[in-house]
Amino acid sequence: MCSRCPWAETSLMMQEYHDKEWGIVHTDDTYLFEMLTLEGAQAGLSWQIILNKRQAYRDAFHHFDVAVCARLTNQEIEEIRLNHSVVKHKLKLYSVRSNAQSFQNIQREFGSFSTYIWSFSPPIKNNWQSPTEVPSQTALSSIISKDLKQRGFKFIGPTIVYSFMQAIGMVNDHLLTCDFRNCTSV
């Protein structure tokens, strides 16, 4: 049996996410857009709720094809809100389109969103012994959040950005006792 970070023991879905994605370096722009979208949707909710709805988000938002999401009409977003099992928060749903547009602007400027986001820091590996030591935000997540907001992103505060950083492996916050601590790339 594997030793995991305690938060991952709540369900098989959380275990799979923890074991195969969280804290592992990701550089694919589609995956980065997916995680940015899901982390924004999670604001005020549990990650378990979002993982339960992940496939619905993939279906609704064309597997996070950023070009398609950037062109969504108001009517299409309303249809998503009414007909898909996503978080129904209107502003969060509309932010997918505006964030996709901002994401594309970054891709044009930097060549990829990955190049942009990874320019802030190489992967950071923390040495936490207890879940209570893991911060909800850092000075770096505040800097990135501020930059993203200036570029037009929504639902992108420092706490959301820190969760995003954990999701894409920019920050590895697996506890010292976690067997998955040294899994660093996909």
UniProtKB/TrEMBL annotation:
Gene3D superfamilies: Hypothetical protein, domain 2
Keyword Ribosomal protein: no
Enzyme class: hydrolase
UniProt cross-references to InterPro entries, sorted A to Z: Adenine_glyco, DNA-3mA_glycosylase, DNA_glycosylase
Protein EC: 3.2.2.20
Binding site residues for Zn(2+): C5, H18, H174, C178
Pfam families: Adenine_glyco
SUPFAM superfamilies, alphabetized: DNA-glycosylase
GO biological process: base-excision repair
GO molecular function: DNA-3-methyladenine glycosylase activity; metal ion binding
Domain of life from the UniProt record: Bacteria
Signal peptide stretch: none
PANTHER family: DNA-3-METHYLADENINE GLYCOSYLASE 1, DNA-3-METHYLADENINE GLYCOSYLASE I
Protein's name in the database: DNA-3-methyladenine glycosylase 1
Gene that encodes the chain: tag
